[in-house]
Design a protein that fits this description.
The chain is built from 4 helices and 13 strands. With 248 residues, it is an alpha+beta fold. The strands form 3 sheets. A 6-stranded mixed sheet has the order 10-9-8-13-11-12, with helices on one face. Strands 4-3-5-6-7 form a 5-stranded antiparallel sheet, with helices on one face. The protein has a two-stranded antiparallel ribbon with strand order 1-2. A hairpin with a 5-residue loop joins strand 8 and strand 9. The longest helix has 11 residues. The mean pLDDT is 89.
């Protein structure tokens, strides 16, 4: 395992040790805060030890994991659940003497992973920043099903947004370009709805950026669907706004 080109060892061996080799890094400065190998092939206590070592690390902690030799034999369900919560779709399927390479962030979905006869993966990660502290507790009693449909001009020419199967943006309402819906973070009620023709309108991108900064609440859920064509006059600044929300 490597951080900025420098090898980080999980044990005394340059090639790692049998089982799960783990490196954990602080999300703010990427300093290594934990590095250890867990022999989940032979030692029945290693899965428990792993959870005890890692469970209290804060959200935002970055994990690199690499399997050497064999790790599935005594891999406990709590370990599988731990990495599944980071979005791993492969940990539950890890087979005998299979390779697994994983990079993830605690509290977020998986960044990248590979599983197979051999496996390798890599990622570039920015530094985490604390934006604001809150002393508010919110009781979560339910959730919402959010669905977005999008098709370009030659493959359906449509955009639809549905919340709990209710059509918020019908294809009839949708316009060419970016169709944006914003939902209140707690209630999931629609607080903003607008279309931007970033195909033909030279002002559409700047209008989107302006509206995003001035009209949308600081904490809201943003749903976007493209209809027809949206890339032609989609500005770099508009792309950066969407990228800040996690759009790759």
């Amino acid at each position: 395992m490597y951080l900025n080109g420098n090898q980080v060892k999980s044990c005394d061996s340059d090639t790692g040790c049998r089982g799960l080799n783990i490196v954990a890094m602080n999300g703010k400065d990427h300093k290594v805060i934990h590095n250890k190998a867990y022999d989940t092939y032979a030692d029945p206590n290693q899965s428990k030890n792993l959870i005890n070592d890692l469970k209290d690390l804060p959200e935002g902690t970055i994990f690199m994991v690499s399997v050497k030799d064999e790790a599935s034999n005594r891999l406990g369900e709590p370990v599988k659940e731990f990495f599944s919560k980071m979005g791993s779709s492969e940990i539950n399927a890890l087979g005998f003497r299979e390779a697994w390479a994983f990079i993830g962030v605690k509290g977020q979905e998986a960044f990248t992973e590979k599983r197979g006869a051999t496996a390798s993966t890599a990622a570039s990660l920015g530094y985490a920043q604390e934006v604001r502290h809150y002393k508010k507790q919110t009781k979560v009693t339910g959730g919402s099903k959010i669905e977005v449909q999008s098709a370009g001009y030659t493959t359906g020419n449509l955009a639809r947004v549905l919340i709990n199967d209710k059509e918020i943006y019908s294809n009839k309402d949708a316009r060419r370009g970016l169709n944006i819906v914003a939902l209140d973070f707690e209630t999931h009620k629609v607080v903003f709805k607008k279309a931007y023709d970033t195909f033909a309108d030279g002002n559409a991108s700047s209008n989107f950026v302006k509206d995003f900064k001035s009209e949308l609440p600081q904490f809201c859920i943003v749903v976007a669907g493209v209809k027809d064509e949206a890339s032609r006059k989609l500005s770099k600044e508009a792309k950066e706004v969407l990228a800040e929300l996690g759009a790759a």
